[in-house]
Amino acid sequence: MKKVLMLLLMFGLMVGLYGYAEAISGPCSNCHTMHYSQNGGVLSGWGTSGPYEQLLVADCVSCHTGTTGATNPNTNAPAVYHTTAPTGQGPGATLAGGDFYWVDAGSDAYGHNVIDLPNITGQDAAIGLTPPGWDPSATSTNAPTGYGAGQVASAGWTTQLTCAGAYGCHGYHQDPTTGADLSNMGGIKGAHHSNNGTSGWTDGTSLGNSYRFLYGIKGYEDADWQWTADAASDHNEYYGADDTTPVRQADGTYTYQNPDTISFLCAECHGIFHSEIDPDTTSGSPWVRHPTDIALPASGEYANYTSYSLEAPVGRTAAVTGPSGTVTPGTDVVICLSCHRAHGSDQPDLLRWDYSTMQAGTTDSTVAGTGCFTCHTGKDGI
Amino acid sequence: MNIIKKRARKEGYNRRGGSGKGRRPFFSFLAVIFIILVFIIPETFAVISGQCSNCHTMHNSQNGSPMATYGSTQPWGSPGPNEMLLRGTCLGCHGMGVAQKIVTIGNSKIPQVYHLDASGDLAGGNFAYITGDKGTGASDTKGHNVIELGNLDDILYWPPGKPSNHGGPNAATLSCAGNYGCHGWRVGGYSPLEGIRGAHHLNQDGQLTLADEVYNSYRFLKGVYGYENMTAGYEWQNVNSLYHNEYYGATQPFNISDPLQSGECSVCHVGGIYVEPSTHTMSGFCGTCHGMFHSLTGIGGDTSSPFTRHPTDVVLPTGGEFDAYTTYNVDAPVARTSVPAAPSSTVTSGTDVVMCLSCHVAHASDYPDLLRWDYSQITTGGSGGCLICHTGK
Known about the structure:
The structure holds 2 protein chains of 2 kinds. By secondary structure, chain A is largely without helices or strands. Chain A has helices at 2-18, 60-63, 101-104, 184-188, 262-275; strands at residues 65-66, 81-82, 162-164, 168-170, 200-202, 219-221, 237-239, 294-295, 315-316, 333-334, 359-360. Chain B has helices spanning 2-14, 23-40, 52-55, 90-94, 128-131, 192-196, 199-202, 282-287, 291-294, 296-299; strands at residues 50-51, 102-105, 108-111, 175-177, 181-183, 206-208, 226-228, 246-248, 314-315, 335-336, 353-354. In chain B, strands 6-7-8-10 form a 4-stranded mixed beta sheet, with no helix packed on it. In chain B, strand 2 (102-105) and strand 3 form a beta hairpin. The interface between A and B is large, with 41 and 35 residues. Strand 11 (359-360) of chain A pairs antiparallel with strand 1 of chain B.
């Protein structure tokens, strides 16, 4: 009996301290089909353009499409693309990464134009294939071990953005062993079965142990992807770094130092925005581009941002065991996701708020203290 | 704490009238406060307003193209990125070279110091006279050749009037702001935009008598008192005797020697580091570069005639020709020894003060030496120019 109790205690400690290891569960047939054939055809819940890699019943988008809820009702996968217009962005409307609804509906500026979406037929009309801020060497030097070239589209942008793989965000871009470019499914292969996140800290040491399968990226994954969220105690935690190394000046030669941050992930495509932010070799204001992976200053207007905002989240510079409602200027860092959603939003440039309403000196109570003014507390009129 | 205050304020805005007891006196009190704020206390807090994107770009990229395009038609147009994430440099924003002396972008008004507006210039003048884009022809003598113009002064290297044993801005470094500029913090190592950082967002105008920060100094000239004319329709302009800036002056200029002596540093290096006039006067500010033109020693040793150089920060004398200068003339403005809360149309000899800007403009004019008038045309028996004060000549 003692041994049983001891085992139970150890299990409890493991779960309590390290979070659940949320590898995917359920019947194989929920996600896989051996021959892409059943009764001489395909089942109603399957994608229609199979067969699919990894013997899946559908592609990335099909599995992760929803209507009005947090998940796809068939696959129970988190819905990053809703077929019904979300009522806005944020909890109860979209998951934390935002939603592809708007970009798929035809507004190029409102999201990442991944070609896998049902109504995306070509490149972004204004931008083309190559992401703004693209720097082919921004993240290659310090890429995680086994990551191939580190960059998304390391050979250049000849193919449109995809969900995962060589031209996507999730999974490996190149085969860690052979260095060969990977497809969507090739990049994400095995991740769902080894998922270590979903309500726990991911340390980036493997794909399954990377934040939202963004290989090498650390972070704390909220269990319901922030479909329900509370600034005080129920949200993701993003990993950031206070990278004050002098290589971040705008001189065209850049090597970013910390490959584990969520902003590093963004820099794999938008490197210049992340790297060439400083006009000189002394890190700090004045900046020439909005800094990311830089600590929120502990002085001036920034010192007033002390309560976590779901609208303008900050990154943490160390592993956390759970969400915190506190922001500590001087320690917590500005990240790309402080302003942008990863997938898309109801605002141009995937922003978290309506930038056109951000009026310096405003006393409009619906705007003051929100958006940009969450950090720039001295720039509104209250 | 500030957030708590903000929330408290928001709650205050939403708060309703309680039980209703005593509400009428309360509203009367509010009405009185409103009237005082709107009609009696002059406008002193005019921080910049408008969309962030009017002035800033986060990544200098939109649809794959640069956003730092302000002033791009001019040689100083920078493709960016710029410090403070701005869409232009100092001159990029304030020297677009267009036909308006005030440019409106969205709901933001941007005063222009390099423009082609035929209706006149802002109070500080127009750098376009230096290049000849406006006026009667290009000349380095017509203005301060800030390096942003890309047109260095071929005649002067050091500021004339500089103490012989002191450095400072020169033809290769003089800039709009910062270490070698006029505006903002004039501190070693500060770039122009670094020097002016934050000032626009905290800008105070109207009557400015504190000047302990850039934003509450006259036109962001650190340490200078004054009254900034921001009357609607006349912003940044000296229009006539009714609508104009008011400059601060003193009854005696500061005193330094040539060569500069130990103990005289604090005249201009207040606090030992940054540069500003200890007298807080407009002329004292000019004197931080052109010291001997302004200094008591430089003008003859005292505040009485005969002078060896034209005095500034000296009272317009009474009992002579100066008594006839009684109506403020924007062609030869005087300074006040206390900053008024509103512009005055009256000039009082014995009280008001002659200053550098009585004869010169700050940026550039169409006349040599940045003068407000054509000195070669000022003749005895004539009118205007020098004769506005020297009425008996």
